[in-house]
Amino acid sequence: MINNLSEYFKKESYPHSLALYRIGFGILVMYSLIRFAYNGWIESLYLEPDFHFSYLGFSWVKPIGVYTYLIFLICFFSALFVTIGYRYKYAIIILFLSFTYIELMDKTTYLNHYYLVSCISFLMIFLPCASYFSVDKNDNTKVPKWTIDSLKLLIIIVYLYAGLAKINSDWLIHAQPLKIWLRAKYTIPLIGETLLQKNFSYYLFSWGGMIYDCIIPFLLLFKRTRNFAFFMVIAFHVMTRVLFPPIGMFPYIMIFSCIIFFDSSLHKKILDFINSFFRLKINKTEKFKTVNNFSLNNRFTIPVVALFFLFQIIFPLRSNFYQGELFWTEQGYRFSWRVMLIEKAGYTTFKIVDNQNDKFFMVNNMEFLTPFQEKQMSFQPDMILEYAHYLGDTFKKRGFEDVSVYAESYVTLNGRPSKRFIDPTVDLYKIKIDLKHKKWIIPIKDDIKSLL
Q1: Which of these, 171, 38, 47, 175, lies nearest to 105 by C-alpha position?
Q2: CA 32 – CA 43 distance, rounded (Å)
Q3: How many other β-carbons are positioned within 10 Å of the β-carbon of residue 442?
């Protein structure tokens, strides 16, 4: 086995695949940042709120006032430099750091595709994506085959976890939450008032989505089924973009990323078209040298990449170490490629108690949170706890010496009747913010069967 691995890591491929992926990825990130700024989300999500929800261990990552625009600008230009292959090593590191900083500034804005961009940009730090078709150099040398396969592996992991997570009773037996979402799409031309109002369509989309996620990576791997698989990729993600506009850039990123599964001959044709269209002076030689200069770093690079994939495989499984229903408690839900599995809504109010004189009053959340923050906080327990601590600290600064914070919270999950979510007798201000099981979440009685 060791010999087989050694031989595998010695294999080389043409550099067209990595070059094309670098260009497309950089363009998608730039487009995403432009879209973010154009819609005014920098101001509404990062500058207007007085309080920002933090990830555990990253409370120091905050917006920096008007200079937050500078972070987005740095991220944009680093993506531009990655696209053209200028100072690539520095550019991709800065892209990873700046984009991840943006992602970590407020937990309210978490989306799977933001996390995916951070993962891809981190992986690309260790890949020779600028060895061809770049401003830095065009030395016509081959690249290690594993560098291309690593991008394929990341996409496979995303799809498989997304598919396996859909093997649960809510998704397959009750067609939830698609039944809620699709029924509300009656305004879509042609299908909105017909197909999307039929009960069978909810099960068709639910089962179809699960089967698609589970088998599409394997269909992409084999040349005989690759063209059909890519057609399915385009059809599936275009359909999700039409049906669910809030999904953002995720469909575009997945469609583009699946091109990496094709042979380098197709990637070469695309690069040749770009070369001719923009009249670039790129050497189109058919001869590529076998140079193992990149392998000099393999003693460091390969172990780091291996640890990265070990993390990607293990981390999504951490929810199994928590008690209770995952969809209800969301302990271990983020960063696990669980895409569009739940529809939750909640109503959470907070009571501040001054224990010195036994007086209490109810908090107006609008005084501290934006409507979007309040909506997200109301059904996510870690955000409820963090906000309770913020309220306790705030009222201590206002002169309350002995403060308690209690929550009245009701949440509905995947069409179920609203149920009490947080134990109203627990002083949340006394609860430590950590990764331990949250015993103050009132368990849901329904048993949602799931594979993961």
Answers
A1: 47
A2: 16
A3: 17
How crowded is the C-beta side of 160, counted as CA atoms within 13 Å? Answer: 14
In this model, does residue 275 exceed pLDDT 90?
A: no
Place of tokens 């970590």: 104
Alpha helices in 371-420 (DSSP H): 371-377, 381-397
Per the listing, tokens 């990496």 go with 260
CA distances from 267 to 130, 259, 272, 382, 439 (A): 15, 8, 9, 44, 53
Q: Can you name the residues that pair with 409 across neighbouring β-strands?
A: 348
Residue of 371, 351, 370, 349 whose CA lies nearest to 361? 351
As given in the structure block, the two tokens for residue 377 are 């906080």
d(CA 387, CA 429) in angstroms, rounded, equals 9
Q: Using CA atoms, how far apart are residues 128 and 152, in angstroms rounded to an integer?
A: 15
Backbone angles phi, psi at 11, to 5 degrees: -70, 150
**Cβ pair 383, 220 in contact under 8 A:** no
H or E element that contains 218: helix 199-221
- pLDDT single digits (tens) 318-344: 999 999 999 999 999 999 999 899 999
Cross-strand partners of 360: 353
Give the whole-angstrom CA distance, residue 90 versus residue 270. Answer: 26
Q: Decide if pLDDT at 71 tops 90.
A: yes
Rounded-to-integer distance, Cα 370 and Cα 6, Å: 55
Is residue 282 within 8 Å of 273, Cβ to Cβ?
no
Provide the whole-model pTM: 0.94
238 CB neighbour count, 10 Å cutoff: 13
Residues 200, 355 contacting (CB under 8 angstroms): no
> Tokens for 440?
């103050």
Q: Is 144 helix (H, G, I), strand (E, B) or coil?
A: strand
